[in-house]
Amino acid sequence: MLFSTKKGAITQSKTDALLAASQLAPEEILKQLQTTTTGLTATEVEKRQDQYGLNQVVVNAEVSRWRILGQSFLDPFVIVLIVLAVVSALTADYDGAIVMTMMILLSVVLRFTQEVRSQKASQALKQMIANTCAVTRDGFTAERPMTEVVPGDIIQLQTGDLIPADAYLLTAKDLFLNQSSITGESMPVEKFVGADRLNDAVTGQQIFDHPNLLFMGTDVISGAGQAVILKTGRATLFGDLAKLATAKRGTTQFDRGLRRISKLLIIMMCVLVPIVFAINAITKGDLTQAFFFAVAIAVGLTPEMLPMVVNSNLAKGATTLAKKKVIVKELRAVQNLGAVDVLCTDKTGTLTQDQITLMSHLDPQGVNDQEVLHLAYMNSNYQTGWKNLLDQAVIDYGNLPNHQAMMASLPADLQKVDEIPFDFNRRRLTVVVKNQQHQWMVTKGAFEEVLGICNRVRWNGSIQKLTPDIKKALIQLNQQLNDQGMRILGIAYRIDVHEQATYEVSDENGMVFAGLMGFLDPEKASAAQAVKLLQQHHVTVKILTGDNGTITQHVAGKVGIKNDHFYEGRQIAAMTDEEISQIIEDCDLFVKLNPVQKARLIKILQQQHTVAYMGDGINDAPALRQADVGISVDNAADVTKEASSVILLEKSLLVLEDGILEGRTVYRNTMKYIRMTIASNFGNSLSVLLASIFLPFLPMLSLQILVQNLIYDFAQMSLPWDHVDRQTLLKPTPWQTKGLLRFALIFGPVSSVFDLITFAFMWFVLHADVAARAGLFQTGWFLVGLITQSLVVFVYRTTRVPFFKSRSSWQVVSATAGAILLGFVMVFGPLQHTFGFENLPAIYWLFLPAVVLCYLALSDVLKKLLKVKLN
Ligand SMILES: Nc1ncnc2c1ncn2[C@@H]1O[C@H](COP(=O)(O)OP(=O)(O)OP(=O)(O)O)[C@@H](O)[C@H]1O
Ligand SMILES: [Mg+2]
Fold it and tell me: Where are the bilayer-spanning segments (predicted)?
């Protein structure tokens, strides 16, 4: 039986195996997998790695060299050549067959090496960013790449971890998972041990509800646990179906535009080719020749290089960025970076330094107080969730050598009882600890959220009722500290007389407000400069943070982001999408947001913009996934990294600026190719159509068309290495289908006009007007076509005067020169007759430069006159 989930159908045998495992006791499972809680031995791991292979799903695997080679042969261009070569061999035209075989090999090698290079680049980048998990082997726990995990491995889980493979839960502490990547359901699911051994008539659908089963690609929202791996790689529930965790990013404008253009080119070809075939078959009477001619035209019009040019452009961009410590996980992200016009970012660590330091621990009256520090330390030290910078700052402060005296009076022999993990809606974290004397419940969190659960306060040395007056004084104190740029956490506690063993969120009440912790979170020195550069390049920077308004305004002011007003999460929650889109353009600060609200704001922005999101917390994962480009850092949590398409090895907004410029460069160089292709295809179609109608012979031999095509392909492969005019990088690069079509409709016919002039010259001046002189005609057009089309790239590549005002790179210059030279070698070299070329009279050599120059000049004038946008 099959049933469907968000990821597709999965087989019953897999569910059965997992369900059977879920019914066993932990000891039984360990025995079955021949492992223990101290983990496998090194030799056993090696054995199992051989047996089970890498823990990866197929889609992530590298495409084999053979496959790429196969694909290189499957290209339409090559197939036509193969057919032509076979036909030539059969008709005893051995010279032709040999030449065509050489062309086939050349084209295959070209394509193969380029594809392998692109793939290698992207694989190498992916490997720099390996997801790891904590695996216990031989009694030691260490972070290891997820791909190396084998069945029987013992893994340790904590907040922010991705589940590396399907696993059986051995122990759990408040373990909540996000299974939305497989079920689509975004509510956290609690996982626990033992409750599962009731033999209910379990159906497949319920497998995700099994509290002791964990699935590959899901992630830990909070809590901690230990599990043993059951199945890895393709043997996992979803292994043979889909890619890990991340839901696929939506298509971008670029993808859609590219698809539309490819479709258009193919339609153009499909319409034109039969017409050309019919006309030539009727007027020239030679069916075979007409057929091969039509086929060659089809090959010439196939945008077969498009995917390769796009890929090698992206790979080139990604490699350049890697040198600047920007790792691109999904190649497409390079292009998206170029189109970004809004950058949303969280605050801590991005705009501010990673170095949060605890500055003061104050009692409710604002006086330095050591008890507040003790409470905070108990909270940060004993919590098992994701220790973020705030927790780290508290622990570091307590552990400083010169604070030993102060910490000496920390209650002794503390034991942890329970904890209520942090979440981004409550914005607080509770830990319960006890010793011989007391059991404390200690909460720390955002000021308002902590104040909200208190009914008493430490005031003037005693515990008093939290009166409205005192409350007002506390709010004022908090505001004062915020105004100084201090990040504040509130601390509260309760000494429990009835000692409970487990605690829940509903227990967070009736607490005593103990005081405030003030952190300094200074902005980065480079942040202001980076924000300014981004703004100069027409990228708006917005802050989406979980922190409060005052402090965010403070930081925004320092780094140069508009900070006159802000919206809070709960205001956003009360608004409709339309209402939000009304205010979102004008406001750059959104505060006290939960993770879902961050993602929602991005989704709304995407209606009008291409949006990048930069963040490093687990709370940023949904936003990172939603954005067109998700940007994170290497030391972020697994889920966060998995959700991102770009990873910064050095956390700086300045390198992001480089990334955006590189993305724009890639876009512009890709567009050069696309523009040339659609204009020349359009022009060539027109010329061929007219020539077919009016000429008594074919305007070019099919073999000649193929040679020409191969030479272009070769020359255009240099485009990713071209320079781009600095001034065109100033603005983001939205895709414009209309502009492209306009371009083709202007410059296609312009090139046809010069084809017609050439036809007229060959016909009237050189008297190539009968079938016997077809060779002369064809040679003449071959050279004009090749040279004009090779050189016009210099006109189309810039809005400025080519060569003088805008230099292209040496790669493009030499590739073009090489292409033209190759053309001459073809026409006049030893293979002249094989290709059906002939020598040209002296007067042609006057005509050729004239026609080429006129064509280039007219194109250049037109592009200025008509203000053609070359972006
Ligand atoms: N470990 C913690 N213990 C207690 N409270 C915390 C902790 N971490 C965060 N908070 C509270 O939750 C709020 C939101 O969390 P956090 O600042 O990490 O969100 P964010 O959106 O990532 O913000 P930022 O833009 O500053 O990175 C914090 O301002 C703080 O009040
Ligand atoms: Mg954060």
Answer: 73-90, 96-113, 264-283, 740-764, 776-796, 808-831, 843-862
The token pair that represents 263 in the structure block: 């479709």
Topology of domain 326-352+524-655, per CATH?
Rossmann fold (3.40.50)
Strands 140-145 and 611-614: unpaired
User: What's the Rg (C-alpha) of the chain?
Assistant: 34
State the fold for domain 357-520: Calcium-transporting ATPase, cytoplasmic domain N (3.40.1110)
Token pair, residue 629, equals: 């480009």
Q: What share of the chain is helix, strand, coil (3-state, %, to 5)?
A: 50, 15, 30
CATH architecture of the domain with range 1-245: Distorted Sandwich (2.70)
- pLDDT tens digits, residue range 50-59? 999 888 765 4
Q: Which residues pair with 656 in a beta bridge?
A: none
For all residues of the chain together, what is the average pLDDT?
Answer: 86
Every domain of the chain and the residues it spans: 1-245, 251-319+660-865, 326-352+524-655, 357-520
Hey, which CATH number is domain 251-319+660-865, 1.20.1110.10, 1.20.120.520, 1.10.10.10, 2.30.40.10? 1.20.1110.10
Helix boundaries (H) for 25-93:
26-32, 42-52, 65-73, 76-90
Ligand 1 centroid–CA 518 distance in Å is 13
197-230 confidence digits (pLDDT tens):
444 444 444 677 788 999 988 888 888 899 999 9
- Beta bridge partners of residue 492, listed in sequence order: 443, 513
How many C-alpha atoms does 753 have within 13 Å on its Cβ side?
Answer: 13
pTM of the model: 0.81
272 CB-near residues (< 8 Å, 6+ apart): 297, 301, 685, 688, 689
Helix (H/G/I), strand (E/B), else coil: 804: coil
Which residues are registered as beta bridge partners of 224? 158, 173
User: Which ligand has its closest atom nearest to the C-alpha of 598?
Assistant: 1
- Residue whose CA lies nearest to ligand 1 atom number 4: 445
Residue 98 CB neighbours (<10 A): 15
Question: What does the pLDDT read at residue 684?
Answer: 86
Q: Which residues contact 231 (CB under 8 A, 6 or more apart)?
A: 14, 17, 18, 151, 165, 166, 237, 239
Q: Is 765 helix (H, G, I), strand (E, B) or coil?
A: helix
The ipTM estimated for the assembled molecules is: 0.94
Residue 488 alpha carbon, nearest atom of ligand 1: 31
DSSP string, 550-618: HHHHHHHHHHT---S-EEEHHHHHTS-HHHHHHHHTT--EEES--HHHHHHHHHHHTTTS-EEEE--SG
DSSP secondary-structure letter at 539? -
Tokens of 441: 């419940």
Please tell me the distance between residue 778's alpha carbon and the centre of ligand 2 in angstroms.
67
pLDDT beneath 50: ranges in the chain: 1-8, 59-60, 197-205, 242-247
617 C-beta closer than 6 A to ligand 1:
yes
Q: Give me the phi and psi of 792, to 5 degrees please.
A: -65, -15
User: Cα separation of 291 and 764, whole Å?
Assistant: 28
Distance, CA of 314 to CA of 332 (rounded, Å): 7
Give yes or no for a contact between 68 and 251, defined as CB atoms under 8 angstroms apart: no
Catalytic residue annotation: 346
